[in-house]
Structures are given as C-alpha cells and as structure tokens.
Design brief:
It is built from 15 helices and 5 strands. Helix 2 crosses helix 12 and helix 4 crosses helix 5. InterPro entries: CRAL-TRIO_dom_sf.
Length: about 350
C-alpha cells in the first residue's frame, strides 16, 4: 500500500511533485508568494484572533466549573454540552451503521471529532476514514508504549528538534515546542542503514507528529482550546525546508487528524522561515494558516528587557540543564499525559 497515494490531501496542491531543494520559487507563482509573505509580515489575521477569543469565552462558560485547572497530574472531569454530545452521538451512529466502511472508535474519540468538526458530520466521517487508512498503513495501536517509543525514536533521529509537550496549567491548551533548525527532512526521507524498510525514518517522523499532538490532547479541555505551537527558526536554512516533504505529511496526517490550531508562534523568524510559511499556505487549511504569528521573541512582553542583548532561542530555555536530562524529563511528562488520555479513553461513555 502506498500511503502517499491512498491518503489524499484535503487541500490538494497542483505543484505537489516539486522539491524545495534548489530553486524554492519554482514551487509557486512569484506574485502569489510575495502576496503571502506580505500578509504574514503585516499580521493580517487580527480579526481571526478576535473571533477565536470570543469563541473561547463561550466555551469556558460552558465547562469551567467541571474541569480542573490545577497543574500536575490532575484528573479532568470529562463533560460535554448537550449540543456536543448530540454531535458525537450522530458521528457514532453513522460510523456504526451497516456498510459505513469505517471501523468504530472509542466514545472519547467520537467526542474529539465532534469538538473539532462542530456538527459537520461529513467532515467528521471524512477525517475518520483518513485516520483509519493512516492507522492501518503505519500499524498504529495507540498504546502508551508505542507513543513513547515514537517520541524517543524521533529525539534520536533529529536531536534538538523536539523541545517540549505539555498542557498549559491555567487554560489547559496543548503546547508543543520545536526547533526547526534541527529538523532535517532529508534525514526522514533517507533509508536507515541496517533496516530493510526503506521508509523506516519516514515512519519515525510521521508517527512522532501523530503522537505528539495526541499527547497534547489528554482531555476535552485541551481539545476544545486547541494546540499552541512554539517554533524556533533562528538558525533555520534551506536544508530545513522541503515542500514536497511537508505536503506528504499534510496529505497523510494533517488533512485528517482532528485538532484545532489555536496559535503557531514562530520565534526569531527570518527570510527563509517567512518564505517557508508563505508556501505552506498553498495546502494547509486557512484556519491553520491564520493562526501563524511570525516575528515572535522570547521575553518580548518584558518591559525591562535589554534590547542590546542577543535574542534568546527557545532551545536555550527548554534544553536545561542539558539535552540528555531535558529529553528524559520530556518523555516522563509525555508519558503522564498519555496515561491520562488512556484513562479517559477507557472510562468515558457518551
């Protein structure tokens, strides 16, 4: 089974066969790229941000009394509004109908699709079918052990890329922190010595992204709130960018996985990362694109910050006191979050 052919992107890209390596501008029309770059630099998504803020207030009002906001290993009380439950039951009924062609999932996952698609039954079923293909092709079993192994293998494959996964202790948004300057598409697309599977490294890469987002969604609050991604790009160059690689990842995973991109904050961005983000617009969803904020800096809200000091990188904060110890702590926290999700999946009933 060729996953690249069977898993079709939700927003197909006419130039999907082009490579970014070499002449990047061949990927798209120059005017289109420039227009996207201008939109990014001007921050043309304030209206979208305001709309998202209003929606959060409504959601918080509906369940703030039912879900804990304490830090640590707190138990989240899983509750749905009447409307959310109706959406989830509609999805479950459609999936479990004769000849649906979709394998049933647990009630927690039906609720996850409902919270993300918000009553769009056909979109939920499309995503379920796509994720069924993904799980089958990559032999995903959704166990904590497979998830932790996937994260650990990715850390070994691309050291310094994966910096943190957690949920905000106050708002319970999922948080993922990565350093794109350590992210090497060529490594993921190169056969690994000693492995007969030519796509061994690719599978490590794509299972990492699947499980890291899943880790950041231990309960309904984090699913509703969405994922906040912090992306370091200070030392990123052309070796870290490959649009055919990104498009395949989107076609196989992101086009189907149920999640909300709350915000993607790009730190220490330059020309390369700005062009890279502008090209992503050609196939990622508009909601995900509008969530991107370029030009972020560590401590940018600190009025006492010394402007003459060199800009901090996210890696300088998250790889403390050292990369090895930080990696061990990272995997321990990921295991806690995955265990919490496992308990919720086993116990929740619609």
């Amino acid at each position: 089974m060729d996953a690249g052919n069977d898993l079709e992107p939700n927003h197909p890209n006419d130039n999907g066969d082009h490579e970014v390596q070499g002449d990047l501008v061949d990927m798209a029309d120059e005017d289109e790229i420039l227009a996207a770059v201008v939109e990014i630099l001007e921050g043309g998504s304030d209206e979208e941000e305001e709309d998202m803020g209003e929606e959060e207030i409504d959601e918080d009002d509906s369940d703030s009394d039912d879900e804990s906001t304490e830090s640590g290993n707190e138990e989240e009380v899983l509750t749905l509004t009447g409307q959310e439950r109706a959406w989830a039951l509609e999805i479950k009924t459609a999936v479990e109908a004769p000849n649906s062609g979709i394998r049933p999932v647990c009630d927690f996952e039906y609720a996850q699709y409902a919270l993300v698609t918000k009553g769009d039954l056909q979109e939920a079923l499309r995503c379920l079918k796509g994720m069924q293909l993904f799980r089958s092709h990559y032999q995903v079993d959704d166990t904590v052990s497979q998830a932790v192994s996937a994260l650990e293998q990715f850390i070994a494959l691309m050291p310094g890329t994966f910096l943190m996964v957690d949920k905000c202790p106050d708002t319970l948004e999922g948080i993922v922190v990565v350093d794109i300057s350590k992210y090497l598409p060529e490594v993921a697309q190169t056969p690994s010595p000693g492995h007969s599977d030519l796509e061994h490294n690719w599978k490590i890469h794509i299972l990492f992204w699947y499980y890291v987002i899943r880790t950041a969604q231990p309960g309904f609050k984090s699913i509703r709130k969405g994922i906040v991604a912090l992306v370091e790009t200070a030392d990123a160059g052309w070796d870290n960018m490959d649009m055919s690689f990104e498009q395949r990842t989107f076609a196989e995973l992101w086009a189907h996985y149920p999640w909300i991109a709350k915000s993607t904050r790009v730190y220490n961005s330059g020309l390369v990362s700005t062009i890279w983000v502008s090209l992503l617009k050609r196939f990622i969803s508009n909601q995900h694109f509008q969530a991107i904020r370029m030009g972020c800096e560590v401590g940018e809200d600190d009025v006492n910050r010394d402007p003459t000091r060199p800009k901090l990188k996210l890696s300088e904060l998250y790889l403390q006191p050292g990369a090895n110890r930080a990696g061990r702590c990272l995997l321990l926290r990921a295991t806690e979050l995955l265990d919490a999700r496992r308990v919720h999946e086993e116990s929740f009933r619609l």
